[in-house]
Amino acid sequence: ELFTMFSNSVTNGGKTTLAEKLKTMLPNCDIISQDDFFKPESEVETDERGFKLYDVLDALYMDEMVTSIRNWIKSPASSGVVTEEPQNTCDNVKNVYILIVEGFLLYNYEPLNELWNRRYFLTLPYEECKRRRSTRVYQPADTPGYFDGHVWPMYLKYKNELEENASMQVDYLDGTKSQEELLSYVYSDIIQELNKLRE
């Protein structure tokens, strides 16, 4: 039995940390990260202000990402997924394979829409997001004004598109909450969904 969940987030919202912690708590769990599918810098478009347009789908090899996800779904046991059971795993979820897909641009990409069981979206207010972004080192480094000129406007555009799509079931999570609180909520929600699948 397969269960796929998507963890989407504003930049520095905590999705990668959340995904990695969940992986240690869930049976037969694997992660595919959107960050692994960025095109090289030379292939990423630059706008008229000189900003590299990384926060758009065209900056990513999305076809390759979809292929990786579909290949995992076809054969999760051969994907290198860790099959050692975490402690305290409920008996009724031991025979399931779980895939967590984490990234920042997942839900507006049509070929992925049929693959989900649950969708989560971590949000942050502007000031906290900008503060966290400033503590990170990127390759290539953010140019002056990049966050306000490209990153934040793209996040707002993307989030607005999601909210306007009535058919899109997304669980919005407050990224300012503690990792423990977020982890507890998402873990409980996944277990509840797995139990429903078994009924």
Provide the fold topology.
Layout: E1 2-9, H1 15-25, E2 29-33, H2 62-74, E3 97-103, E4 118-123, H3 126-134, H4 146-164, E5 171-174, H5 179-198
Parallel strand pairs: 1-3, 1-4, 2-3, 4-5
What does this structure look like?
By secondary structure, this protein is an alpha/beta fold. It has a single domain, classed as P-loop containing nucleotide triphosphate hydrolases (Rossmann fold, 3-Layer(aba) Sandwich), CATH 3.40.50. It has five helices and five strands. A five-stranded parallel beta sheet has the order 2-3-1-4-5, with helices on both faces. Strand 2 (29-33), helix 2 and strand 3 (97-103) form a beta-alpha-beta unit. Helix 1 crosses helix 5. The protein starts with a strand and ends with a helix. The mean pLDDT is 84. InterPro entries: P-loop_NTPase.
The largest sheet has its strands arranged as 2-3-1-4-5
Report, as a whole number of angstroms, the end-to-end distance: 13 Å
What is the C-alpha radius of gyration, as a whole number of Å?
17 Å
Q: Assign the CATH architecture.
A: 3-Layer(aba) Sandwich
Low-pLDDT residue intervals, each spanning 5 or more residues? none
